[in-house]
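Pipeline run #58 for the internal structure catalog. This entry was flagged by the ingest filter as a single-chain record with no existing model, so it goes straight to prediction. Upstream metadata was stripped on purpose; only the residue string is passed forward. Reviewer on rotation: M.T. Logging verbosity set to normal.
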Amino acid sequence: MGAAVGGPIIQDVLGFRVSAWTRHDGGYVDQNPALLGLPPANATPRGQNAGELLPAIVGGQTDTNVNRGETCSARVALLWKPNDAITIEPAIYYQKRDQNSADLYDPTIGNPSGGKFISSRILQQPIYDSFYTPSLKAVFDLGWAQLTSTTSNLRRTDSQGYDYTLVLPPAFGWALPTSAADAEPVIVGTNQSNFTQEIRLQSPNSSEHFHWTLGIYYSNLHQHDYETAAGPTYPQMTLANTGMTMQQYFGEGLVDGNLTYISDQYIGDKQKAIFANADYD
């Protein structure tokens, strides 16, 4: 569903336009980790050993249409023309996606060919992604040339949850958890801040045969990628499966008291450019 409205605020001087759009996705995946212990007769065993089925999970999250979500966007813009030689266009654009859980399902459970999709994950895996971009465009008619300045700044926040409960134990040859108390939620995310600026001087539109362009460009990009994996019961799981403490088996304990893994990466990139072009037709 969307709508837009616009018009003059001051006739021939100042105008506006506002638009917005939203969408609801109802979802089609049901979540029930308890069904891990009750696969259909034609299911392929997925345990560590041949013929072994994954155990049912006690206390896992259950829900219907778990992958439902909401998406929306909006844009507001102004057009200011104080005289015939100057045009200024400030604007801001916003978009958000908020999904309850990922579009993942277990093909060995339910009846996918019949439209029955089941997730056997213990935890929901939410997705959130939002950004906004303010921008400013200014055009100056100099008579002999046209000067254009374009500025924008993207700010984005993105994160997704993952369920690693049944991922790491098999990697160490350990027994699979049977309780949601041993859940291992993982969050992977990105924060971005991207600034760009371009100033362009070009031949006027009235030029018939000779066209030229001169300009400079600058961008400054910052990005933070992060990941955390929480496993507060890993000390007990390590002791139960190895007879050793985490310090003895891995050489260290949990990070900050409850994390099995943490990662932070900071990325920066600056670009500068001078460009020119000329052609005759």
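catalog note: The first helix runs from residue 168 to 171.
catalog note: Residues 99 and 253 are 34 Å apart (CA to CA).
status: ready for reviewer M.T.
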